[in-house]
Design goal:
With about 240 residues, the chain is of the alpha/beta class. It folds into two domains: about 160 residues, HAD superfamily/HAD-like (Rossmann fold); about 50 residues, no CATH class. About 40% of the residues lie in helices and about 15% in strands. The strands form two sheets. A six-stranded parallel beta sheet has the order 3-2-1-6-7-8. It has a two-stranded antiparallel ribbon with strand order 4-5. A hairpin with a 5-residue loop joins strand 4 and strand 5. Helix 2 packs antiparallel against helix 3 and helix 4 packs parallel to helix 6. The radius of gyration is 18 Å and the shape is globular. Bound molecules: magnesium ion.
């Protein structure tokens, strides 16, 4: 599909921010628990344990407290990918909707959304449930985003005014949206995965998120950005 696109949706971990949010929770765990969780992650990556099962047992073991999620959110913001903010601002200046679809945890992802000026109703991630004293109870199993294929119903369910949409991400669950969006851009600025590079419509190798703009904009949109001092220096 060719530009113009109505919306650009981003993955969060290793796309908008250079960290992986759930890994950040490890810093609050004791060394035995850290080893335990690292082993689960290893098994998920080797395919010996299903992703969904690992998601559930990792969170159960880490049992994050409510206030720890705000710390992870602050780390997301401290580790923003270069030019993430100006890229979002350029897209919004052109009248595009911007959204975030993440398999991470909702509260930290909302932190980065607020920082970037992304409306919270366009932010999709996995909500956690807490006891009244702030201890972990469970995560919201009704969210599709803790399983493979989970981003597909989210992009398909986006408002019709957000179509056609571009999706930008670094991972396999991002690539799964490709057949359901107007264009899929792989972002390799933090982690470059061969499978994503091979499957994407376009792949960005630069560390700057602004590298996606060349694959998103129509010619009139490119000119509009060049005519605005805030965006003139972007690689467009
Ligand atoms: Mg990612």
């Amino acid at each position: 599909m060719v530009p113009p696109f109505a919306a650009v949706y981003f993955d969060c971990d290793s796309t908008l921010s250079s960290i992986e949010g759930i890994d950040e929770l490890l810093q609050f765990a004791d060394p035995d628990l850290q080893k335990d969780v690292a082993e689960l992650t290893r098994q998920a990556m080797n395919g010996t344990l299903p992703l969904a099962e690992v998601y559930e047992s990792r969170l159960g073991k880490l049992a994050p407290r409510r206030e720890q999620l705000d710390l992870v959110g602050a780390h997301y913001v401290q580790n923003l990918v270069p030019d993430a903010l100006v890229t979002v601002q350029a897209l919004q200046f052109l009248g595009k909707h911007v959204g975030i679809v993440s398999g991470g945890l909702l509260v930290p992802v909302q932190h980065i959304a607020r920082h970037l000026g992304v409306p919270l109703d366009c932010v999709h991630a996995v909500p956690l449930l807490f006891e009244v004293d702030g201890t972990y109870r469970d995560f919201d199993h009704d969210s599709p985003l803790w399983k493979n294929g989970g981003k597909v119903p989210v992009v398909r369910g986006a408002p019709s005014t957000h179509q056609p949409m571009v999706f930008v991400g670094d991972g396999i669950t991002d690539l799964e949206t490709k057949e359901h969006v107007g264009r899929f851009i792989g972002f390799g600025g933090v982690v470059a995965r061969d499978a994503v590079r091979a499957g994407a419509d376009h792949f960005v190798e630069t560390s700057s998120l602004a590298g996606i703009l060349a694959f998103v904009l129509s010619e009139p949109e490119r000119i509009a950005l060049q005519n605005d001092a805030r965006f003139r220096s972007l690689p467009i």
